[in-house]
Design goal:
There is one protein chain. The protein starts with 10 loop residues before the first strand and ends with a helix. The chain folds into three domains: about 90 residues, Rossmann fold; about 230 residues, Mur-like, catalytic domain (UDP-N-acetylmuramoyl-L-alanine:D-glutamate ligase), CATH 3.40.1190; about 140 residues, Alpha-Beta Complex (Protein-Tyrosine Phosphatase, Chain A). Helix 6 crosses helix 12 and helix 13 runs parallel beside helix 14. The strands form four sheets. The chain has a six-stranded parallel β-sheet, with helices on both faces. The protein has a six-stranded mixed β-sheet with strand order 15-16-20-17-18-19, sandwiched between helices. By secondary structure, it is of the alpha/beta class. It contains 17 helices and 20 strands.
Length: about 475
């Protein structure tokens, strides 16, 4: 098993005190390593963590990222929330200082088998389902990465008999590519800088996302590909046959690819068969898992998530009976088409996780009832044209708020010019609270009021969860 001695006598600098940065600083300090932390926030903004770190002997440089810190560091651990494009990190790369992350260190140290998943949507639901399958099969299971708490906090508790399921974001995965340390003299740090992929990995789908952070769609796709690009010849990858990007990528994997599809059937894959979610063997014989009417998750996209989780579970020798038992009771995760309340025969749904137009489309297509859509926030430089057409076909009212409200309204209006039958009405608001009031005024029995923003939350909220929580409270107060 790997151990932390790889960092012995190394001067560590952690950039960014997000969840990962805080967990990693505590972990390294607990192993008596020399740790400095820098964050652009002030001590007052960071709160009690500053006092705790000072008591632990962790050096803090706050309110700035002074380049003088680079004169006294052997390796940087960067929190995923910190863009590689900030001047401090650009300077560090020009000096050929090694880069890593908490997640990358965890994967190096972890003694248990790791199953890792990524995708533009469906990551958290599929990751959680795989974890539930493993737990139901009797494994002590750890779920983390881009979901829950950083796993580095629990590394001492994890045994080789356990199983680890990780959701990995593009921000985390870009550090799994060796190119980020191109030209760096690695010496004993080489295992932290080389490319890494899990032996069982899932690339669920790729659609445009985070183009406000990644310089192009190409760099976004490249980041995602780290989940599979460094696998061994015997390793397995689970991918969507219905997504253009993953279908193209997967051709190079031959028999190692396990395909799931709503539309087609492939040997050793997963499909819809007579409205049942089913696995296929090498001869394409069907092995039904569960009928869709018995699944509590809404939408065809969640059927695809279940297929992906089932393919992973089969590779882990989990029985169909165990999968079925879990699926019969699994109600999904918060902020993901979550039913908040039935009020005056109107259903209020929280889909605050929908931070892209693509995810909004999935939510809209999950309902066959009249929809009052609440959308808006901060735009992520993504295309809205196709989504606008779906909005017009699926909604009676669209209530917009946030920085992107006028832009979204313009795209919907333009799309509506080509659709003579549209009856969608647009409403512009100044706050989420105002949108809920207007939605409740227009809603009639049988309607769905759907918060599915299609944008990030950072114009008014700390994250999508805070946005969802406010929506839930507003609905509860109706």
């Amino acid at each position: 098993m790997a151990d932390i001695s790889i960092l012995a006598n190394k001067r560590v600098l952690i950039v960014g005190l997000g969840k990962e940065g805080i967990a990693l600083a505590s972990f390294l300090a607990g192993h008596n390593l020399s740790v400095t932390v820098t964050d652009s926030q002030s001590a007052a903004e960071l709160g009690e963590v500053v006092e705790r770190f000072e008591a632990d002997g962790i050096r803090l440089v706050l309110g700035e990222h002074p380049t003088r810190l680079l004169d006294e560091v052997d390796i940087l651990f960067v929190s995923p929330g910190v863009p590689l494009t900030i001047p401090f990190l650009k300077e560090a790369r020009s000096r050929k200082i090694p880069f890593s992350t908490e997640t990358r260190l965890f994967c190096y140290l972890c003694p248990a088998p790791i199953i890792a998943l990524t995708g533009s949507s469906g990551k958290s639901t599929t990751t959680t389902l795989v974890g539930e399958f493993l737990q139901a099969a009797g494994y002590k299971t750890w779920i983390g990465g881009n979901i829950g708490q950083p796993l580095i906090e629990h590394i001492a508790e994890i045994t080789p008999q356990d199983r680890v399921v990780m959701e990995l974001s593009s921000f985390q995965l870009e550090y799994f590519h060796p190119r980020i340390n191109k030209g760096v003299s690695a010496n004993k740090l080489a295992p932290l800088l080389a490319g890494w992929s899990p032996s069982l990995g899932a690339l669920l789908n790729i659609t445009p996302n985070h183009l406000d952070r990644h310089s192009s769609m190409r760099t976004y796709v490249r980041a995602k590909r780290a989940i599979i690009d460094f696998q061994k010849p015997e390793d397995i990858v689970v991918m969507s046959l219905d997504n253009d990007v993953t279908r193209t990528i997967g051709r190079q994997f031959g028999d190692r690819a396990r395909w799931f599809s709503i539309e087609a059937e492939r040997p050793n894959g997963a499909c819809l068969y007579q409205n049942q979610i089913a696995l296929l063997d090498e001869n394409k014989s069907h092995q039904p898992i569960i009928h869709r009417q018995d699944v509590k998750l809404l939408g065809v996209h969640n059927a695809a998530n279940i297929m992906a989780a089932a393919l992973i579970a089969r590779e882990l020798d989990i029985s169909i009976e165990t999968m079925r038992t879990v699926l019969m009771r699994f109600t999904g995760l918060p902020y993901r088409l979550e039913l908040v309340r039935e009020h005056e025969q109107v259903s209020y749904y929280d889909d605050s996780i929908a931070t892209t137009p693509e995810r909004m489309m999935m939510a809209l297509r999950a309902f066959d009832r009249p929809i009052i859509l609440i959308a808006g926030g901060r735009d992520k430089r993504l295309s809205w044209e196709e989504t606008a057409r779906v909005i017009i076909h699926k909604t009676a009212h669209v209530i917009l708020f946030g920085e992107a409200r006028d832009m979204i309204a313009q795209v919907i209006t333009k799309a509506g010019q080509d659709i003579t039958t549209t009856q969608t009405q647009l409403h512009l608001c100044n706050s989420l609270a105002e949108t809920v009031t207007i939605a409740s005024n227009f809603a009639t029995p049988g309607n769905v009021v759907l918060l599915s923003p299609g944008c990030s939350s950072y114009d008014a909220f700390s994250d999508y969860m805070e946005r969802g929580d406010q929506f839930n409270q507003l609905v509860a107060d109706l």
